[in-house]
């Protein structure tokens, strides 16, 4: 059921339109002139406006212009007994959804109303989708918190981002290393260029070289065509090598050459390809210990760690949990389409007592669980029931 406003100075026309629309189960309101109609449209929440063109006090085209300025997403169907092609074209140019001549044909009215409402629903769905996408993107790059440790990272990002210096980000799983990398890219001169991410831990050792440097057709059994690698795809932008500590030694040697010379060689190829890439790497491992074990090249470590940034664990910044919790509650409620919930002060204090071995990622998952399973407010009892670790 839609909420529709009819603006027309002819009482008989308003009555006829009302009968048609109410028969279709729509809620209908009326206005006898343009001025009254504009006031009603601005004061109420309507899904559609049917508006006459020739009216006292304010004509329909002026009403249309003012409605567009007030809410450009509100569909307006113009109706006129003095219609000409020029009038119809003018109305459509001004933003009208449709133009109908009087006396209105029932079928023509119903089709126009249905199409206008469908368009309105589509616009609204698109708006919601964009908001969700925006939130998803923001969730990946925002740094929520006011702890001293986080402030130091923000200051470091501001200093480092404008340069092309390589950055090595360290920290535990779920601490937010990817978010730091994305912020550095977004604040750099390469922000308009590509941002390519590679999870080195997720790619088998025998495939990592092909993934990074590409391959030529026929270079191995499944190489059925030439393929560009991540280094080449990131040309002019940023390449984020996540979990660099898990990269195979053979690939490490080629990455070192790419950093030293700015050139790569695809697997099976005999020609070098020049690349202009800023490399940001991240790891949850102690690379100095990995060097001692023979698992990581010391020369590559020094190439990568021009600017080292350590992302503290959530346990090192417990004072940020209230802000993070509020942020995640807002995100989860929006995603689930439920009324935003509050969280009790005692519940927040209990959250601050938990170990958080999974860091910010774990907190986000716990908050989602609490939002779904709690009542109107997330209480201390909810935290004990759904967030506390069980023996």
Estimated radius of gyration: 30 Å
The residue fraction in helices comes out at 40-55%
Number of helices: 16
Shape, principal axes of CA atoms: elongated
CATH class of the largest domain: Alpha Beta
What is the string of helix and strand elements? Answer: EHEHEHEHEHHEHEHHEHEEEHHEHEHHEH
Q: In which order are the strands of the major sheet placed?
A: 2-1-3-4-5
Classify the fold: give the CATH topology of the largest domain: Rossmann fold
- How many separate structural domains? 3
Mean pLDDT: 90
CATH architecture label of the largest domain: 3-Layer(aba) Sandwich
Assess the beta-strand content as a share of residues.
5-15%
What would you note in describing this structure?
The protein has 391 residues and is of the alpha/beta class. About 3% of the residues have low confidence. Helix 8 runs parallel beside helix 10. It has 16 helices and 14 strands. The strands form 4 sheets. It has a 5-stranded parallel sheet, sandwiched between helices. The protein is elongated. It folds into 3 domains: 131 residues, Response regulator (Rossmann fold, 3-Layer(aba) Sandwich); 167 residues, P-loop containing nucleotide triphosphate hydrolases (Rossmann fold); 72 residues, Helicase, Ruva Protein, domain 3.
